[in-house]
Amino acid sequence: MCGIAGVHDPVGGTGAEAANALLAHRGPDDAGAYRDGALSLAMRRLAILDIAGGRQPMGTADGRFTLVYNGELYNAAELRRELEAKGERFASDHSDTEVLLRLYASEGAACLARLNGMFAVAVYDRAEQTLFLARDHAGIKPLYYFQHGGRFAFASELKALLALPFVPRELERASLCHYMSLMYVPGERTILRHVSRLPAGHCLTYRLAERRAELRRWYRPEFRPDPAPDRHEWRARVRAVLGAAVQRWKISDVPLACSLSGGLDSSSIVGLLAAAGEPPETFSVGFTSAGEEPWNELPLARQVAEKWRTRHHEIVLDPQALIDDLPRMVWHLDEPYGGGLPSWLVFKAMSAGVKVGLTGTGGDELFGNYGKWRELEGWPLARASVAGERFTREYFERYYYLPDATKARLVLQGEPGAAASTGAMLHAIFAQADAPTVRDRVAALDVATQLPEEFLMMTDRFSMAHSLEARTPFLDRELMELAWTIPAAQRSARRDLKGLLREAVADLLPPEVLRAGKRGFVIPLKLWLRERLRPLAERLLAPDRLAHQELFRPEFHERYVRPHLEGRADHTSLVWAALMFQLWHHVFMESREGAVPAYPLSALA
Questions:
Q1: Does 243 lie in the same domain as 114?
Q2: Of 70, 119, 295, 450, which residue has the fewest beta carbons closer than 10 angstroms?
Q3: What percent of the chain has pLDDT over 70?
């Protein structure tokens, strides 16, 4: 796994070195750079495959193409054999980087349709004077870019772009508006003006001479349900394709482990590996303090580990240690984020002994989507259209954290009519999905928004913060495409959202795990905000600070913060979202130190 960066600066001649330096945590094993006039490319490498032969930037023998790449291709061996059959002779032993380089040199952007893996890649074509960027089908690996004032730059992380002197730190208010409802920043626009993210399944061609970028979608989920197979056949297909995906995604020249939450998805991966004769090392995190029992999944994870005799590690969450790490988490996350944080501790513990960790991320989006389609689904089930008002009421306001009207009138400063409508943004994606049923359209919406820009973003940043490569076998391209051919009513049922997956892996898991309901991998925030985090909330959400900042209404403190802290009301989600934004604002907009914060959270409170 790696971090990549590049700069085209015909105005001032700035190179990519400063950006690359801030990606050292993504690749502590090696670094490389390339320069051609006003263009520079750089990378940091975490060596996983072909440790000796995969150095980057990597170029073709004729000097035309130069590539920097972050990711892994799990069908690289097959692609290599095809290229060798056509006469290609490889310099490396089994580098997937060289496979991708030679495939692009042979087929151009069309090669993306043949890739199965996770990647963010940049290829410079010296002959055509173009820079080509692409992000994988699911958005597992990140890629940000900047285009303004005659300059262009890209990097694996937003903070790396902020190391460049010409990238301004200007807040994008529409993104703040969406964040307060979703607890993550969705879409192409980031929390900063002039900085965009390359969406999942998209590519971009930048023409150096014209200083012009062209964005194109290269991958779109296709929901084409096949009514022929019966339940038994679908179970068999899911089991076979998931098993093949786990085998593909475990390929490595270094040791690997599994994050084991005790839920169906991560437990399935452990079971499949162990049943194939390769029981992995497993890591679980849990809570044992008074009042935190409802969030504790250690007993379920322990049963899976005992069944398969894995070398199991239990991490008992130390609330103060996690809280003290919050400034570091915020720095690594790049953008405001209010979701679950315990994965930080899992990846931290894993990184002490391995370089690769498999997770169950993506299973919920493929099989069930948390049931968010239930209230939208009408009769007949094939009817997929839902009016905007009903969508807002039965999807956005039911499953997310802050309605648009409340946000505009009571939370954020500015004219209420000027606030971005998160409900309308989500409904537009839902309505445009090429899918035959409501369940399919909700799946398409989740795969376009929450999956890449919340769950995968957090997984990437928290793992790479500890120089660990996190892999997500449920997002194997063949498995995802199989899921979209399963009729929606077979793929997920109202009373058992992941029933088909559960049946497919039932023999691998203890009965208690099969019967357990879905639990969020989150921390007991309501308790912590009133106790451990109260001094920080009182400082960063104080009325005078909010008034000076001119983003939140000063009365936000008296309306929401104080009643929650004093136990008179429960505004957990809203106060936590605001507090995490303020931490982000302090780290990136106020301190501007650049390096990862070395101080504990108590220093801010």
A1: no
A2: 295
A3: 95
Please tell me what DSSP assigns to residue 51.
T
- Which H or E element spans position 232? helix 231-249
Helices 457-464/343-350 angle, 10° precision = 40
Cis peptide before 403 (omega within 30 of 0): no
**Element housing 406 (H / E):** helix 404-406
Q: What is residue 529's predicted lDDT score, i.e. its pLDDT?
A: 93
Number of domains in the chain: 3
CATH number, position 16? 3.60.20.10
Mean pLDDT of 490-513: 94
Mean pLDDT of 209-229: 96
| Tokens describing residue 95 | 């580098």
Distance CA 125, CA 449 (A): 31
CA distances from residue 44 to 17, 32, 460, 464 in whole angstroms, order as listed? 11, 7, 15, 12
* Helix residue ranges per DSSP H, 436-518: 438-448, 450, 457-464, 477-483, 488-491, 499-504, 511-515
CA angle 339, 345, 346 (to 5 degrees): 100
CA atoms of 105 and 125, how far apart (whole Å): 9
CA–CA dist 156, 4 (Å, integer): 6
Beta-bridge partner residues of 39: 8, 36
pLDDT at position 420: 86
Which domain, by its residues, includes 252?
A: 231-368+445-515
Write down how long the chain is. 605
What is the three-class DSSP state of 228? Answer: coil
Q: What is the pTM of this model?
A: 0.95
CA contacts within 13 A on the Cβ side of 464:
32
Which residue spans within 232-381 are E strands per DSSP? 256-259, 281-286, 312-316, 356-358
Q: CA triplet 164, 167, 171: central angle to 5 degrees?
A: 135
Prior bond of 294 cis (ω within 30°)? no
pLDDT at site 29: 86
Q: Where are the alpha helices (DSSP H) in 509-585?
A: 511-515, 525-530, 534-540, 543-549, 556, 562-565, 572-584
Mean pLDDT of 311-331: 90
Residues 462-476: tens digit of each pLDDT? 999 999 999 999 999
Across 86-95, 321-330, 352-361, 363-372, least confident range? 86-95
Residue 79, domain member (yes or no):
yes
Going by their DSSP bridges, the two strands 202-207 and 195-197 should be labelled as unpaired
Q: Are residues 465 and 592 in the same domain?
A: no
Examine the domain organization and report whether 54 and 147 are in the same domain.
yes
Per-residue model confidence (pLDDT) at position 21:
95
Cβ neighbors of 229 (< 8 A, separation 6 or more) are: 237
Label residue 53 by pLDDT band (50, 70, 90): low
2-23 pLDDT per residue, tens: 899 999 999 999 999 999 999 9
302 and 320 share one domain: yes
pLDDT above 80: residue 580: yes
Closest CA to 33 of 10, 3, 11, 53: 3
